[in-house]
Amino acid sequence: MGELGKLRLGVNIDHVATVRNARGGDTPDPLRAARIAQEAGADGITAHLREDRRHISDADIEGLMEILTVPLNFEMAATDEMQAIALRHKPHAVCIVPEKREERTTEGGLEVAREENRLAHFIAPLREAGCRVSIFIAADMRQVEAAHRIGAQVVELHSGAYCDAYHEGRYDVADMELAKMREMAAFGHSLGLEMHVGHGLTYDTVSPVAAFPEVVELNIGHFLIGEAIFLGLAPAMAEMRRLMDAART
Ligand code: PXP
């Protein structure tokens, strides 16, 4: 590796469950995807147990806790139900994300600044249980500061606005979003937060983000699972890994 440390790749397997649930049976099995990703060098597996259970199920989380040898990053909304599930399983990491039932995916970052008190109380037992608590936010200084104040150890910056702008050909907006993330990665790091980035990343958008020196982990799902249909999961991950490593040298 070059001067920068190796980036961790967290593989989000939610959309294997999306395809499974489209037919209501057992296949394709997200646990099988997790095993393959793990064998292919994933540094972690990410799964989002949504309140409406549209993809990952409670049984999937139980299964992941049993089979994984790499850390599970459990994404969840800040609700009592999810807190109880996290406290029962004690995954390596818990990433708090905003959730609206009507959205197709996690469309924005969490409003930490407005809910500081509630969120500080919400994450305290998770930290006490030994989970690393991550907060998924937009690249906004107010939110980074608030995440730090409530006691989060990790911040994951939402890369969706950058990726959407890039893929829609609005390159000036993409550059602006990238600059905001770069600045907030450095700012969060200066506060002592561990910095991650995720959402919407593809082969075309990953390199500039992977080059941020303060970022140590990327979480990537939808695009990798889509590529896996054509290439298989391990080769799809290998290409992402190659691009990530190249950006660090
Ligand atoms: N990180 C977080 C916090 C997310 O909520 C998601 C989407 O569930 C991802 C990363 C992965 O995003 P994508 O599936 O678009 O790669």
Overview of the molecule:
The mean pLDDT is 96. The chain has 11 helices and 8 strands. By secondary structure, the protein is α/β, with parallel strands linked by helices. The chain has helices at 14-23, 30-39, 58-67, 80-89, 116-128, 141-150, 160-167, 171-190, 206-210, 222-231, 233-248, and strands spanning 8-12, 44-48, 72-76, 93-96, 132-137, 154-158, 194-198, 215-220. The radius of gyration is 17 Å and the shape is globular. Helix 7 runs antiparallel to helix 8 (171-190). It has a domain at 77-248: TIM Barrel. An 8-stranded parallel β-barrel has the order 1-2-3-4-5-6-7-8, surrounded by 7 helices. Helix 9 (206-210) links the parallel strand 7 and strand 8 (215-220). The structure holds pyridoxine-5'-phosphate.
Give a nutshell description of this structure:
This protein has helices spanning 14-23, 30-39, 58-67, 80-89, 116-128, 141-150, 160-167, 171-190, 206-210, 222-231, 233-248; strands at 8-12, 44-48, 72-76, 93-96, 132-137, 154-158, 194-198, 215-220.
Provide the helix percentage.
40-55%
- Which small-molecule ligands are present, each listed once? pyridoxine-5'-phosphate
**Which architecture of the domain at 77-248 per CATH?**
Alpha-Beta Barrel
Give the neighbour order of strands across the main sheet. Answer: 1-2-3-4-5-6-7-8
Task: Using the CA coordinates, give the radius of gyration.
Answer: 17 Å
Tell me how many strands there are.
Answer: 8
Largest sheet: 8 strands, parallel, barrel
- Structure class: alpha/beta
Assess the beta-strand content as a share of residues: 15-25%
CATH fold naming of the domain at 77-248? TIM Barrel
**CATH homologous superfamily identity of the domain at 77-248:** Aldolase class I
SSE ordering: EHHEHEHEHEHEHHEHEHH
Low-pLDDT parts are none
